[in-house]
Write a structure and sequence with these properties.
Layout lengths: L19 H8 L19 H9 L8 H15 L3 H4 L14 H9 L9 E4 L5 H8 L7 E5 L4 H9 L9 E3 L19 E5 L7 H14 L6 E9 L3 E4 L12 E4 L2 H15 L3 E7 L5 H7 L11 E10 L1
Helix pairs in contact: 3-7, 8-9
Length: 315
Amino acid sequence: MASTSDSVPNPQPSSKEESSIHKLAKIIPRSKDLPWYQASYGSRLTPETRNLLEHYAHVPPSEIEAHIYKIRDAAWTVFPFPCIGEFWFLTLGLSAHPRYNDLLARVKSASDKTRPLLIDLGTCLGQDLRKLVYDGAAPTQLLGVDVFPDFEAVGHDFFRDADRFAGRFVAADIFSTADSALARTKGTWDVVASCMFLHSFDWAGQVAACKKMVELAAGPGSWIMGGMTANVHAREQVLKPPFVPEGVKRSVFMHSKESFGRLWDEVKKDTRVEVKVWAEYEEGESESKEANEQGAGNLFGNSEQKLLWYMIEML
């Protein structure tokens, strides 16, 4: 099982294995003129997140608005992701998952509350983990992973819980082959979660990421679950400036629920594991409609954009 200590070492990425995202971080501007830096969070602040800020973070209601803008700008200096500029970190992803109640029951019913059992990849500010704690999980059961170590401090500032949520973050690149605190937890996690993570990669990168998730999972009975931006018609999208600097070549793959199944067919073949794959679109209007109405420079915006939930059960 994963380490049961209250604190997990927080390694810095090896300079010899500097990831493409770290290389990009050195050259992409933190300019507020980027089209996805929104002036207002609009309707992005959900009642659930407001409740979390009031009753978990203990932010006075009159201070919430200023607090959000302060945190967004602090996170923007770490890396100007569209999800930061467009305030998507205010939307709690994991708790909106159709199987969230099953997840919560699994975490709360664990006999050993000191054993880490859920890992959140691409955790960003750790908002989904704080929601789990507020709903009854023990902090020691959870671990967030992100390639940018400075997101840990911004998350603590956002939720005002450095004293309550210490040591639940590891800075790591899941693709790195270097020995790390993350690598030493392979094969130990009951739940491998990720929201708004997989759509950041091309097809090959997604296959590699899913194979890493399989490696992290404890085996039969484990879950790999989350959500991502998708499209009713699967396609590769080449990123162009300003989403990448001039001269940088990068693409992402936008899944349909059918292509997501094919992705896992390839993962199963490569890893020789048996899994049950479930994937379904979020009901309601497209994700891009809301972003466009708020004036966002949406990375994937078009009328066929959807939110795709998934659950992979290891057999």
